[in-house]
């Protein structure tokens, strides 16, 4: 056989699905006995070799279920906006109360929708499709004995910690999960926007719940015909629906936010936790892990979905056997 002696592996059937467990180690030992392979080690390779070149281009997943869920998300936020402004704040006699709550609620709602838009339309870290060609692998000039992992589904060279998403039909770097509510995968490049989305939705849910409680108290004390520009039955129905919506989303997004922050701090994606994959990457402290997702140094921009975090400093590791 001609050199270079590199081999393509299917990681989903090798190490990917089952981690580098006994099976992987037994395989390694067998290969070592073959005499042409070196001890296991990792080498950093340039990120732009395997990162999508379309990172700055518009990204949108054409998935009917995801598009419907994303539209529902926007409709629910706009419904909350309608009830808060037209049922509760505008009819209120206290101008200061209406003004402060109106500014806070609308700002948070804008940040939530902006985070959603960026989470949906940012390339989560897709690996170029079909780049695992013989010519391309040869152009990488791998050293003899190096192994590159190939995804059998999208035929791409799969970097370490990347997983294939069947909805996006791509391998995604540091894929956490595919979220239909943002119609996209949550991965290395858009996790910040997803975390901000869950945080701002939890905040507007909490804020609108508080306002609903105050408005009910105000209506009970005052005359129901004067506390809203809508009829009393319509007001009650609109407020109860908002109450249910806010409560449901407050619970859902708070849990999601907590899970995401935990997985960022421990530097372990949702998929890695589920598959109980063995840690093959360097352990860093929580602060460094947070900075890797939100950008560095810490600033108010961490909370802005309009600011793109500084990416690309982290080295990409590839397994060599
Ligand atoms: Zn793939
Ligand atoms: Zn996906």
TrEMBL record:
Q: How does it sit in the membrane?
A: Multi-pass membrane protein
**Natural source organism:** Gadus morhua
Q: Name one Pfam family in it.
A: DHHC
Indicate the segments forming the Palmitoyltransferase DHHC domain, all copies.
150-276
**From which domain of life does this come?**
Eukaryota
Q: Where is the composition biased (Basic and acidic residues)?
A: 7-31
- What name is this protein filed under? Palmitoyltransferase
Annotated domain remarks: The DHHC domain is required for palmitoyltransferase activity.
**Keywords of this entry:** Acyltransferase, Membrane, Transferase, Transmembrane, Transmembrane helix
A GO cellular component annotation in the UniProt record = membrane
Q: Name one GO molecular function term.
A: protein-cysteine S-palmitoyltransferase activity
* Major localisation: membrane
Q: Where is this region: Disordered?
A: 1-31
Q: Where in the cell is it found?
A: Membrane
The protein's Enzyme Commission number: 2.3.1.225
Family membership: Belongs to the DHHC palmitoyltransferase family.
Regions annotated as coiled coil: none
**Bilayer-crossing regions:** 64-89, 95-114, 193-218, 230-252
Say yes or no: keyword Membrane present: yes
């Amino acid at each position: 056989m001609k050199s270079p002696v590199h081999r393509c592996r299917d990681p989903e059937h090798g190490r990917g699905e089952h981690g580098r467990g006994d099976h992987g180690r037994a395989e390694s030992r067998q290969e070592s006995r073959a005499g042409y392979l070196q001890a296991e080690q990792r080498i950093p390779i340039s990120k732009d070799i395997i990162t999508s070149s379309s990172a700055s281009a518009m990204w949108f997943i054409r998935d009917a279920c995801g598009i419907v869920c994303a539209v529902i998300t926007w409709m629910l936020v706009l419904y909350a906006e309608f009830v808060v402004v037209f049922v509760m704040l505008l009819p209120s006699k206290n101008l200061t109360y209406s003004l402060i709550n109106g500014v806070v609620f609308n700002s948070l709602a804008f940040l939530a929708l902006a985070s959603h838009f960026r989470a949906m339309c940012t390339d989560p870290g897709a690996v170029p499709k079909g780049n695992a060609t013989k010519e391309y692998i040869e152009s990488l000039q791998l050293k003899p004995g190096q192994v590159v992992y190939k995804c059998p589904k999208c035929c791409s060279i799969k970097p370490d910690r990347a997983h294939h998403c069947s909805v996006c039909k791509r391998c995604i770097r540091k894929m956490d999960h595919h979220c239909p509510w943002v119609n996209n995968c949550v991965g290395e490049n858009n996790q910040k926007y997803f975390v901000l989305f869950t945080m701002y939705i939890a905040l507007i849910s909490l804020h609108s719940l508080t306002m609903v409680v105050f408005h009910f108290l105000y209506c009970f004390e005052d005359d129901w015909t004067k506390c809203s520009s809508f009829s009393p039955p319509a007001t009650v129905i609109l407020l109860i629906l908002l109450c249910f919506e806010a409560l449901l989303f407050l619970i859902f997004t708070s849990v999601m936010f907590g899970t995401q922050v935990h997985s960022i701090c421990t530097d372990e994606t949702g998929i890695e936790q589920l598959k109980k994959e063995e840690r093959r990457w360097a352990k860093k402290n929580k602060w460094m892990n947070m900075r890797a997702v939100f950008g560095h140094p810490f600033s108010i921009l961490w909370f802005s979905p309009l600011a793109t975090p500084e990416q690309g400093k982290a080295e990409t590791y590839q397994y060599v056997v």
